[in-house]
């Protein structure tokens, strides 16, 4: 055996560790957080894997290989691109939050405007009701003036004509307000919605029929605002 042949094993032995270290470079790469997957995903899905049971974290070998095979500049560019994308998403999130705040303020203003609108409508309705009452009272003042003038005449004066004229004026005011007099004739049937029975009396009218009207009632727009007070025949006078 020559001296060169005898030295080859030693040189081979010296080169062997270096080769082993080179082959292990890929496994020495740091594991990124995104490269870690859940233990359940590493198993067979039913929790029977020993690694999943022990809570060990499995690593995506393809991702590790891709990182190991990539040069540092490529990895740096990819990280920079991801960082830029994250910054862009954060800017979009800030913009959305600003839009939400603006819409919230607009909603509050609209709600305040609606409340003010309701208050204005309520006040206007009250004013209209007051004006309607004012108009009615104004027309009734003429009726009162006529009654006052009739009472100021001499005691011996015949005031019937003036009173009748005043009553007609008053009825005209009621007609203008869509008010009808409820004054049934004797012998008519009692209407419990429009008539109030005061007492049963002896009368020539049929039993249960109206004998006499004690006080007329009034209807306004088909609504009874005061029932007519009547007496009812018990039939004893027949």
TrEMBL record:
Q: Which domain of life is it from?
A: Archaea
Grouped into one coarse class, the protein's main location is cytoplasm
Q: Which residues form a coiled coil?
A: 79-157
Localization: Cytoplasm
Residue span of region Disordered: 1-75
UniProt keywords, alphabetically: Chaperone, Coiled coil, Cytoplasm, Stress response
Q: Does the keyword Secreted apply?
A: no
List the molecular function annotations (GO) for this entry. adenyl-nucleotide exchange factor activity; protein homodimerization activity; protein-folding chaperone binding; unfolded protein binding
Q: Name one GO cellular component term.
A: cytoplasm
Look up the record and give one Gene Ontology term from the biological process aspect: protein folding
Which Pfam family, any one of them, does this sequence belong to?
GrpE
InterPro entries found in the cross-reference section: GrpE, GrpE_CC, GrpE_head
Checking CDD domains in the record gives: GrpE
Compositional bias, Acidic residues, is annotated for: 1-14, 25-44
Quaternary structure, per UniProt, is: Homodimer.
The name under which this protein is listed is Protein GrpE
């Amino acid at each position: 055996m020559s001296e060169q042949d005898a030295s080859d094993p030693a040189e081979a032995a010296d080169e062997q560790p270096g080769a082993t270290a080179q082959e292990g470079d890929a496994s020495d790469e740091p594991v990124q957080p995104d490269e870690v997957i859940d233990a359940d995903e590493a198993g067979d899905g039913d929790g029977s894997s020993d690694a999943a049971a022990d809570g060990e974290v499995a690593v995506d070998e393809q991702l590790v290989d891709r990182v190991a095979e990539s040069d540092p500049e490529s990895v740096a560019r990819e990280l920079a691109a991801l960082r830029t994308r994250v910054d862009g998403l954060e800017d979009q999130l800030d913009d959305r939050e600003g839009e939400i705040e603006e819409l919230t303020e607009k909603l509050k203003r609209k709600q305040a405007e609606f409340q003010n609108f309701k208050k204005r409508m309520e006040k206007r309705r009250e004013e209209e009701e007051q004006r309607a009452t004012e108009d009615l009272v104004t027309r009734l003042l003429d009726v009162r003036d006529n009654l006052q003038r009739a009472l100021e005449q001499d005691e011996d004066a015949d005031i019937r004509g003036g009173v009748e004229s005043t009553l007609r004026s008053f009825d005209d005011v009621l007609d203008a307000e869509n008010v009808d007099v409820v004054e049934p004739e004797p012998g008519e049937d009692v209407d419990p919605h429009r008539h109030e029975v005061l007492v049963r009396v002896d009368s020539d009218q049929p039993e249960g029929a109206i004998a006499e009207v004690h006080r007329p009632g009034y209807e306004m727009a088909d609504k009874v605002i005061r029932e007519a007070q009547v007496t009812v025949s018990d039939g004893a006078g027949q």
